[in-house]
Amino acid sequence: MAYIDPGTGSMLFTILIGVIGAAFYSFKMLWIKLRFRLSGGKVKENDKKLPFVIFSDDKRYWNVFMPICRELNRRGRDVFYMTASPDDPALQADFEHVKAEFIGKDNKAFARLNFLNATVVLSTTPGLDVYQWKRSKGVDCYIHIPHAASEIILYRMFGIDYYDAIMLSGEYQARDIRNLEKLRELPEKELVQIGIPYMDEMQKRKDGATPPPHPPTVLLAPTWGSSSIFSVHGGKILDALLKTDYHIIVRPHPQSFKSEKELLDKLMAQYPESDRLEWNSDNDNFDVLLRSDILISDFSGVIFDFTLIYDKPVIYTDPDFDVGMYDAWWLDTPLWTTSALPRLGVQLTDENINDLENVIKSCLTDPRYAEGRRQVKQETWANAGRGAELAADYLERCYDRIISEKGEQAG
């Protein structure tokens, strides 16, 4: 049998999907026109263009979309929330104007999206018109919103190229997008700086909470993959922490339980729970962040959640990782994150891992890290407290502009 390498297979699959999609779309339009004529010009409910669609490829992004859904619901705007998670919290949300629907997983979800009939689509999912998710001819505007307060160029290559607009939280993100557009000779996308709605929600929640009594606590929250703390240091990091006087919470990335199950099972058996150490896998990380005094992590968005909302220091691993598969590879400018992290705490190295007691004390007491947190927050969290409001403003403007340009009456 002939062998087809994965890259060629992906390309052939994309071509096949494109051909099938074009044929399906053509037949669908012909069928709609035929039904329209046979019904005497009456439009069926299923043929109506949806005003606002939100697509989420995973339930964990409900925190990104919930504040925006709530704001659009308050304004009486009808939103159709399409999720690829059968247990997405959105399916249980009680919003009068937000209709949530599970549309299947993976390719089944993309098949539905590829023939969507909508005015505005909002999503955190990268790779539009690159992989299985194709731009539908029935959609007027695709808008991307990041799910973390960090680099927009750490998506896989071309991840946001074919969106029409991007919602941002910092000027450095806009700079990087414009540089990519020039290099790739792409038309300029509309960039709107709204802030970070989910962090606004976390801030309000944190301001209304009182940390429970707890011993001085270190939260170890590694991401997953070859550059993660556990992949690089293994149990050495836990040995070093157990030599300190701190209580230790270990919260692996959810993907680790799937992709690195053997590694985690081994570590959890080698370092069982005790009065000094606990393993945490709660869906909501609010409580563990609230009762932790310092965070140790790697190249993960939780660093910014922890340090900017809870105003606490971090210890981080080497951020100099291979960007070969990411959009960042195209740019000569250094990653913003590499300038932010040293202002937030101390880098974990082979040299200081066995002196964690003193490293932690330094982070907790040195005033320069408090000033660093203030600077970083100013750079990456625009319009703090107003993210959902400004996101809804832009979505409405975009919708109204499209309707006006088409000469149609807004619904």
Description:
The chain has 2 domains: 42-196 and 385-406, 3-Layer(aba) Sandwich (Rossmann fold); 203-380, CDP-glycerol glycerophosphotransferase, C-terminal domain (Rossmann fold, 3-Layer(aba) Sandwich). The chain is 42% helix and 14% strand. It has helices at 6-38, 62-74, 106-113, 171-184, 197-207, 229-233, 236-242, 256-259, 261-270, 286-290, 302-309, 336-344, 356-365, 367-380, 387-406, and strands at 50-56, 79-83, 98-102, 118-123, 139-144, 165-168, 190-193, 217-220, 247-250, 277-279, 294-297, 314-316, 345-347. Helix 2 links the parallel strand 1 (50-56) and strand 2. The model is unreliable at 1-8 and 39-46 (pLDDT under 50).
What is the radius of gyration computed over CA atoms, rounded to a whole number of angstroms? 23 Å
Q: Major beta sheet, specifics?
A: 7 strands, parallel
According to DSSP, the number of beta strands is 13
The helix/strand series, from N terminus to C terminus, equals: HEHEEHEEEHEHEHHEHHEHEHEHEHHH
Regarding quaternary structure, how should these chains be classified?
A: single chain
Number of helices: 15
Strand order of the largest sheet: 3-2-1-4-5-6-7
Query: Proportion of β residues?
Result: 5-15%
Low-confidence stretches: 1-8, 39-46
For the record, the CATH class of the largest domain is Alpha Beta
Q: What is the assigned CATH homologous superfamily of the largest domain?
A: CDP-glycerol glycerophosphotransferase, C-terminal domain
Distance between the termini: 56 Å
CATH fold-type name of the largest domain: Rossmann fold
Estimate the global geometry from the Cα principal axes.
globular
